[in-house]
Specification:
This protein is an alpha+beta fold and 186 residues long. It is built from two helices and eight strands, in the order H-E-E-E-E-E-E-H-E-E. The strands form two sheets. Strands 3, 4, 5, 7 and 8 form a five-stranded antiparallel β-sheet that branches. Strands 1-2-6 form a three-stranded antiparallel β-sheet, with no helix packed on it.
């Protein structure tokens, strides 16, 4: 039985090869070839080697007096946010965070805006779309700590529990804006 199946398979293979050889996979009836065969592997098109462009080197901030290096205060502020502690349970949390100025000059008019999301849906915090926290002035190399209460409605709390949460924290100052995003699980 096995030899018969093997012989039948060999016969089908020979007949198939003969048909392909005689007609060809891309030939129309009558033996003409209206469209050329599509190559299995396209021929690579030679491209010109790109010439590297030089990367400009940063120049230091010009000093008001020639020959005197710029002072650290000419370096703009850079604000970072660190969550120090989260306590509480249920639908409310007490959050303590720090705003750090890792830049070289003072940041003024600083405040932070927190928006909370459950999946792609924005949820209300403390009955509002966003929570604004005034920070004020943050000197170079200094940190300012603030503690706030964060409350969610029952419906939004369920959304956060089911989908996980994401907070978008934007820090504004007279000198610029910094945006941070972090996922959390209530």
């Amino acid at each position: 039985m096995g030899k018969a199946i093997l012989a039948l398979f060999a016969l089908l293979l020979v007949v198939g090869a003969a048909v392909v050889y005689r007609v060809g996979p891309w030939r129309a009836p009558g033996g003409t070839s209206p469209t050329p065969p599509v190559p299995l592997f396209p021929t690579p098109i030679p491209t010109a080697t790109p010439t590297p462009t030089p990367i400009p080197t940063p120049t230091p901030t010009p000093s008001p007096r020639p020959g005197v290096p710029p002072t650290p205060t000419s370096i703009p502020p850079r604000l970072e946010v660190r969550i120090v502690q989260v306590t509480g349970s249920g639908l409310a949390r007490i959050v303590t965070a720090q705003v750090l100025n890792t830049g070289g000059s003072e940041a003024t008019g600083v405040y932070a805006v927190a928006q909370f999301f459950a999946g792609a849906t924005q949820v209300q915090v403390n009955g509002q779309d966003a929570l604004r926290v005034e920070v004020g002035r943050v000197g170079a190399g200094q940190r300012v700590e603030r503690t706030v209460e964060v409350r969610f409605s029952l419906l939004d709390g369920l959304r956060l529990q089911r989908s996980g949460g994401r907070v978008v924290l934007t820090v504004y100052a007279d000198q610029g804006t910094w945006r941070y995003e972090e996922a959390f699980q209530p």
